[in-house]
Design goal:
CATH class: Alpha Beta
Oligomer: single chain
Distance between the termini: 36 Å
Radius of gyration: 12 Å
Shape: globular
Strand content: 25-35%
CATH topology: Structural Genomics Hypothetical 15.5 Kd Protein In mrcA-pckA Intergenic Region, Chain A
Number of strands: 5
Order of helices and strands: HHEEEEE
Length: about 90
């Protein structure tokens, strides 16, 4: 599954175009490297996101063919969720 599609289907990012832009701007790391939108995501991969002042690190747990909204949080496991100081 493509990285931008995973981010959208797992509801980590609301829209696929926003996920693609985040990847292109270097805000998404896949296994420690800058993730391109078309990078292939596999079970066990680690994804680190920087969204504003929030830094989120998740591990891919499952890749269902057509996930429902209720299945979205089961696609990943949160490893770290840090929020920077309010500005």
């Amino acid at each position: 599954m493509r990285l931008d599609v995973f981010l959208k289907q797992s509801r980590l990012i609301k829209r696929r175009t926003v996920a693609r832009e985040a990847c292109e701007r270097g805000l998404v790391l896949l296994n420690g490297r800058v993730g391109k939108p078309a990078s292939e995501v596999k079970v066990g991969d680690t994804i680190a996101l920087t969204l504003g002042s929030r830094h989120l690190t998740v591990q891919v747990v499952s890749l269902p063919e057509s996930p429902r909204a209720a299945d979205a949080t089961g696609m990943y496991r949160t490893l770290a969720d840090e929020t920077g100081p309010a500005v």
